[in-house]
Amino acid sequence: MTTTGYVFHPEYLWHDTGTSAGLLPANPTAGIQPAVHVENPEAKRRVHELIHASGLLGELMVIEPRRATVAELTRVHTDAYVQHIKTQSELRGGGGGGDAGDGFSPVGHGSYDIARLAAGGLIELVTAAVHGDITNGYALVRPPGHHATADQGMGFCLFNNIAVAARHVQAELGLARIAVVDWDAHHGNGTQAIFDDDPSVLTISLHQANCFPPDSGWTHENGTGNGAGYALNVPLPPGSGHAAYLHAMDQVVLPALDRFAPDLILLANGFDAGVFDPLARQMLTAASYRHMTRLLVGAADRLCHGRLIAAHEGGYSPFYTPYCALAFLEELACTTTHVTDPLAAVVAGYAAEPLTPQQQAVIGEAAQLLPRIQTAVPSA
Ligand SMILES: [Zn+2]
Question: How many CB atoms lie within 10 A of CB 377?
């Protein structure tokens, strides 16, 4: 019997990224017209609404988020960075008036408290999983987290929600080995950097090669110091879809998890590798996400009592992200609803694209690094 936890809060939609032109701060004198920021609430609102309207919400255990404390955040982030987000968040210059550090990560008025609620939502979810109240779960949080490093926000991310949760689990809940799988279309650079020299946290990122951040997430980035071998990257060529991602799951992600034998699997769950996403050029469909989720749920069942906890990251197509998210969550909860992907017939041709030699080569390159992960036995 699977119990799936679900974290959501209206405040997640109130994180105000302002009137940027897509992803650029508006700058009329430079000819950059104000518009809606690409990381706005709409896709997330529609995901939540579909979870509700499909009837799936009634089958989930709703977990209330709380705000992460400064002490919890500074297990991962520097004091100065946490203070920086607080200060930026106090600016009253209108939505997205502040910035987390890279010039592309807006901080709205009050975003500090909302970002703490996102990190704290994930903490509550992993806590419920470790206590056995839920088997697995999904935190539909905003702002996202996987690009944020210890001392800098990046790529719309303020606090690294997954890293904060992983450190909380290790410090407070007694689990030792954490695996982070990141299938967001962009490299999980922040999470990788935070755990780079730490063999107790295995990071695996599948992403579009050389997309964001630029020149980041190559296979040779394989962990440093004691963590050598414990960061895996699969930089897939643009245009990669169902066949490539499934092959990467089969050849890299699952065997890496089997070797590492985590006590908990965290998932940086981006839906921006979906075929209609504006911020990447990958070709996954809702069916792809369903299939990948099934594989990951299987690994969690096999290795760590089903403990698979996902945090929402990217996914910027308001009209397609909800179907990918619903397929993911149905699979997590071992159920289906009456809602099916209304674009399934349209995207079936994309999903039929065969594996290319280039995709196979990069996946093979990553798979060659697997022996660097010491084989462990799953703990009882
Ligand atoms: Zn992304």
Answer: 7
Q: How far is CA 346 from CA 70, 335, 356, in A?
A: 47, 24, 22
- Tell me the mean pLDDT in the region 146-158: 97
Report yes or no: 171 and 32 within 8 Å, Cβ to Cβ: no
Give the mean pLDDT of the chain: 96
314 C-alpha vs ligand 1 centroid, how far in Å? 4
Distance 184 CA to ligand 1 centre (A): 5
Q: Let me know if 147 is a catalytic residue.
A: yes
**How many angstroms from the chain centroid is the CA of residue 24?**
22
Res 94 pLDDT > 70 = no
Q: 40-62+135-372: which CATH number, 3.30.200.20, 3.40.800.20, 3.30.450.20, 3.40.50.720?
A: 3.40.800.20
Q: Do residues 373 and 202 make contact, with C-beta atoms less than 8 angstroms apart?
A: yes
Ligand 1 centre distance from Cα of residue 34 (Å): 22
Residue 376, token pair as written in the block = 């462990």
Q: What percent of the chain has pLDDT over 70?
A: 99
* pLDDT of 303 strictly over 70: yes
Q: Is the peptide bond before 143 cis (omega within 30 degrees of 0)?
A: yes
How much is the CA Rg of the chain, to the nearest whole Å? 19
In this predicted structure, what is the pLDDT of residue 23? 85
pLDDT digits (tens, 9 = 90+) for 110-127: 999 999 999 999 999 999
In the chain, where the domains are located: 40-62+135-372
pLDDT at 53: 98
